[in-house]
Amino acid sequence: MKSVYPSLHGLPAETKGGVYALVDCNNFYASCERVFNPKLEGKPVVVLSNNDGCVVARSNEAKAYGIKIGTPIFQCEDLVKNQKVYLFSSNYALYGDMSRRVMDILTQFTPEIEIYSIDEAFLSLKGFHYLNLTEYAGHIKNTVKKWTGIPVSIGIGETKTLAKIAHKLSKRKPEYDGVFNIIDHPEIDQLLASIEVNDIWGIGGQYTKFLNKHNINNALQLRNARDKWVEKHLTSVGLRTVLELRGIPCIPLEETIPAKKGIMSSRSFGKPVEKLTELKEAVATYISIGAEKLRKQKSAASVVHVFLATDFFKEEPKYFNFSTFRLPTATASTTDLIGYAHKSLEKIFRKGYQYKRAGVMLTGIVPENQIQYNLFEPKPLNRRRETLTKVIDKINLELGTDTIQYAAEGINKPWRMRQAKRTKRFTTKWDEIPLVKG
DNA sequence: TCTGGGGTCCTAGGACCC
DNA sequence: TCTGGGGTCCTAGGACCC
Q1: CB-strand contact A367/C, under 7 Å
Q2: How many Å apart are CA A345 and CA A323, to the nearest integer?
Q3: Tens digit of pLDDT for each residue in A65-90?
Q4: How far apart are CA A362 and CA A290, in angstroms?
Q5: pTM above the 0.85 mark?
Q6: What distance in Å separates the CA atoms of residue A45 and residue A39, rounded to the nearest whole number?
Q7: Strand C and chain A: which residues 138-197 have CB closer than 7 Å?
Q8: Nearest nt by C1' to A209 Cα
Q9: Can you tell me the distance from the alpha carbon of A257 to that of A363, in angstroms, rounded to the nearest whole number?
């Protein structure tokens, strides 16, 4: 029998009924800060973006004050002062390590897991039907909390999109206790009708505007929309979302982490930068970060992009430019990549501007064992340099990031981003481990 | 004073080839 | 009168995610 649904990019659309659980860490960054400072329990906690600029995470108490994600923190000055909000710079060394611990625990509950982001994972629970799934999820939740101190909430559905919706519902009533299973729910239509389209995974601001204009305001209405119409206006991606709302899995679990196709590294500066020498240090630092990621996934890049920008928000003369350099041969060597990036930077640098931000992007990424060597270029990475790079990577992995740096990255780094309120890297730096007794 | 930093996929259109 | 058409590759832009 032919399926009534189109096969999307080779996905078997007719296989109905997966069992997916979405495990999401509650207010992850704020929760990480709390694990190492229990006094913060019950207090409003806010974690800031790089350069201490915007709000990127809040505890429930901070949410209750109406502090929104993405708002520049200086706009909340009064709240911060009067309500005693605890502010933190983001501490990715800590959050990354806590994330790994949470994911390690989740792996023990199912063989099929996709680590979706730093604070979320999809688990396939197909074949676990002999269990009460809600109870099982409750057990997962309690174990993570007990072993790491991180609170999570869990949604269960027949597709990843429905699991996301179930997760949203898990927070709706205290009696759900952070777990909601939407599979075979007798009131599924009412539940879907209570979810705004904007809250559906895959429907963002533009699509929301468009759908609302056509009187599609909630998940139930979108689920019932005509396939052809959806595909025409929301492309095949939107159609997948609609099919998922109907319980037909179209977005498979991705258990292996695919190699990145582009690696970006950029930061705003702590203060404006004018000098080429300082920009060169910054660019070298970003290349070093990018190249390390490149080597970690065992690949090499053949295109280097460098960009440079003045402050977007200020009245001062504005300048933005980027330059793309195609390498004769793909490489993952920090030294080589810094050389190319510096040449690009010199090309776009203009004197007399107050620069606020620079960055690099590495693309044209190929696996390291598939590098095409150029007939007219010498093999760029000699044996000794390759060994040296490996040793540096190993030392930095074992003793902490930046134990060894390239001289081109600079020593004092006056342009470095602000991180005035960063807590210690409790779990990844030997000299920052918490002491039980001082 | 002060406004983040990463990624993915899809589509349309142009260049080029036969 | 009628002025091919299919395929691939690349890029830019737009949507989305955390």
Answers
A1: no
A2: 7
A3: 999 999 999 999 888 888 889 999 99
A4: 7
A5: yes
A6: 11
A7: 164
A8: C15
A9: 18
